[in-house]
UniProtKB/TrEMBL annotation:
Molecular function GO labels: phosphorelay response regulator activity; transcription cis-regulatory region binding
Recorded superkingdom: Bacteria
Protein name: Two-component system OmpR family response regulator
Organism (species): Rhodovulum marinum
SUPFAM superfamilies assigned: C-terminal effector domain of the bipartite response regulators, CheY-like
Domain OmpR/PhoB-type: 142-242
Single GO BP term: regulation of DNA-templated transcription
Ranges annotated as DNA-binding: 142-242
Length: 247
């Protein structure tokens, strides 16, 4: 497993929850730590029985599932998940188990990764699967809200400064600002912001978030090169660094 570097980003309840089911502790725990470093919430289960108990309390966004486990194997649990309309599944499979991989895909698994694997590859596959899964539309507050010296009016797509200046926003800028206002003091990764603002549009791309943030900063920051409202969390994403008030 790749060595982890840097602080773990703050996560919110809006971040995707990943359930990792693997009887090998030396895979399960480092993988959970790695995914948390990438802004995902994780739950761990050592076998199918533990996984079922976790699933009774809620539905994760995705399950990473080892095929070869003592007792009930991963294929059986995958079949059960698919039959009940559960979350998408990525199988972890040994190099030689081509038949199991085929059976897993036929059962309804969304993807598979062959052991030993690079955690970055698994992360890329997790994000790819999550992008394919429809997500309920995000509801953004429609009222006027204050942040720092500004008031955001999503209906008029504009912000007004305490000194009376009014600045128009594009629909994309207003929507992104609304998402940030929904999650003050919370680090939102570029992937998460892309999902919330673009609605999983296949044509959208990560750089679009950076471009929109840059335009927003030019409109609301006193010094866009040293932002104090919308700050960058290196390796994490962006964070609204001020309190939000309904007006």
């Amino acid at each position: 497993m790749e060595k982890l570097k840097g602080p773990t980003p703050r996560m919110s309840q809006g971040d995707p929850q990943i359930l990792i089911v693997d009887d090998a502790r030396d895979i399960r725990e480092p993988l959970g730590q790695y995914l948390r470093k990438q802004g995902l919430r994780t739950q761990l289960a050592a076998n199918a029985g533990e996984a079922r108990r976790v699933l009774e309390d809620g539905t994760p966004a995705l399950v990473v599932l080892d095929i070869m486990m003592p007792g009930e194997d991963g294929l059986s649990l995958c079949r059960w998940l698919v039959a009940r309309g559960g979350p998408p599944v990525i199988l972890l499979t040994a190099m030689a188990d081509e038949t199991d991989r085929i059976v897993g895909l036929e059962l309804g698994a969304d993807d598979y990764v062959v052991k030993p694997f690079n955690p970055r590859e698994l992360l890329a596959r997790i994000r790819a699967v999550l992008r394919r899964v429809p997500e309920p539309a995000t509801l953004i507050a429609s009222g006027i809200r204050r942040f720092g010296p500004w008031h955001h009016d999503p209906d008029l797509q504009q912000v007004q400064h305490d000194d009376g200046r009014t600045v128009s926003l594009t629909s994309g800028e207003s929507r992104l600002l609304g998402i940030l206002l929904d999650h003050p003091h919370t680090v939102l990764s570029r992937d998460r912001l892309l999902d919330l603002t673009a609605g999983r549009d296949a044509k959208a791309y990560d750089r679009a978030i950076d471009n929109t943030v840059s335009r927003l900063r030019r409109k609301v920051e006193a010094d866009p090169k040293a932002p104090r409202l919308i700050v960058t969390e290196w390796g994490g994403g962006y964070r609204l660094a001020v309190d939000v008030e309904d007006t």
